[in-house]
Amino acid sequence: MPDIKRLFTKLFMDQDIKQKIEFFSQVTILNGLGNFDIGKLVTDMNCRAYDAQEVIYGEQELGKALFIIMSGEVAITRKSGLLKEEKVIARLKSGDFFGEMALLEAIPRAATAKALTSCKICIIYKASFDSMIAKDPKIGIVVFKNIAVILASRLLGKSGGG
Amino acid sequence: MPPGYSGRAAEGKQIRNKYIVLLAIVLVLFWFTYEIRRVIAPFIISVILAYLLHPVINYYHARGYKKGVVVLFLSLICLFIAVETVTFLLPTLMHEMRQLQVRLPEMATQARNLLAKVQDHLVPYYPSLKSKDLPDFAMSKINSFAASIPSHLPMIIGNLFNFLSLYILVPFVTIALLLDADRFSTWLFSLVPSRHTETILSIISEINQVLRDFLHGQAMRLFWLTMITIFGLLYLRVDFALVFGLLAGVFNIIPVLGAWLGALPPILMIIMQGDISLVLKLIILFIGIQVLDNTFISTYYLSTSVNLHFVLVLFVIMVGAEYYGLLGIILAVPVASMIKVVVGILYHDYQYKQKLILQQQQQQISS
After folding, report:
1. Which among B347, B69, B196 has a CA at the least distance from the CA of A123?
2. In the structure, what pLDDT confidence band is assigned to residue B224 with cuts at 50, 70 and 90?
């Protein structure tokens, strides 16, 4: 029997998508989603490679997608002070995500995202995400709840409250 | 002039130039599709089929199955359904067509008698009609039109797409699209400069959603309308229910006018038979189907599609018919919806950038 199962898996199952589902189930913003829901997101997203120092998006640009880092490092920078100096506010690595506010609404980006090393990033578009949650609202509830938790923890962190 | 003003103005001009270039690319694309319109039909049919089958492939792929295996199984199922449908429907359709052919002379005589009656009723009010043989004139026109159909039919079908391309090219292109669409989009994705990835691909994503929703909605709508029409005609015991039902289904592809064009052939046939009560029942049936379509079917299946004004729908259908024939009639509305989405996104983007430039200029002035 185990041999038949192994043969079935080898013939019919896609190891690449299984690995991707496993990887994305560890991403905080997708916490609580089942494997099939993550699979639906994976089949709908696009992934691309960025070279080191390539700008992924700029501050004030209209946000329309969520970015999840599969490999490499990304810096989130913001211009501040009188001289508008660029300041690194976060360094993100594999499994981290950024630009999540775009899933809620197409609003201007609050910071610039730049690849620090060559990296592979997967992108979920607001348009396709909206269409997906219209058909399956459960996915929307889970993801939006996660975004709310992330935003709350950021606010609490900023204000120093517990 | 405040510092940085000329720089901002140049930036604004640069944005405008970008949109002009984009518009030029779109116009060139339209010109190109017009030039190749005679060969493009099987490819467009394949794209539509791929769009309709893609969710099934994605469903199983998301569950971890290999895409190739799912495509293979789906192709076998589609082949089985096609063969079964043809073997089940074809004999019934052929029988109905043969019956229709046999009964045509009888129906022509009935039509002639009906026209003669109409003329008799009209002569007291319009005496000039007495000198004209209205039934003979009308019948000669109908006969010459009917005689011209068989000679024109191969040309009509041939113009749409040839037999070989439909049965061989379409399945192959559809399977290739289902298997390689993702690889192609990844390749296309890599060509887009990283800075514009988000904007350009979100436009593509939105167009994709509009097309997907439209095609799925239309397919389901046409299926239900065809089924309801066939069962309605069978219930009223109208002859050739299958032929007329399928015809009504096909006509429903044409928005707005299609429903009434589909109703005409059975109503005309029953008028010729002189069964007025059945004519009334048929009219009620088609009005009922139309109401059902407008209130439930279209609302349910096409609710997420882009809304276009009735006049605009008519206009784009006429433009489509003029330049691309039958294919233009069918594709006019989805293409118009697509253009509306793209223009909407680009306009929103343009407005946002102009606002940003204005804000920055005001900041410069105030500082």
Report:
1. B196
2. very high
Count how many domains chain A has: 1
pLDDT tens digits, B102-141:
777 777 777 777 777 777 777 777 777 666 666 677 667 6
Predicted confidence (pLDDT) per residue in A53-97, tens digit? 999 998 888 888 999 999 999 999 988 776 778 888 899 999 999
What domain range is A124 assigned to?
2-130+139-154
CB contacts of A61 in chain B (<8 Å) are 198-199
Burial class (CB in 10 A: 0-12, 13-18, 19+), A81: exposed
DSSP states of B139-177 as a string? HHHHHHHHHHHHHHHHHHHHHH--HHIIIIIHHHHHHHH
CB atoms B58 and A43 under 8 Å: yes
Instruction: State the ipTM, two decimals.
Output: 0.84
Evaluate the CA torsion angle B49, B52, B56, B59 in order and state its sign: positive
Residue A63 lies in a domain: yes
Cross-strand bridge partners of residue A47: A122
Which of B72, B183, B197 should we substitute to test contact with A (largest number of A Cβ atoms within 10 Å)? Answer: B197
In a domain, A82, yes or no: yes
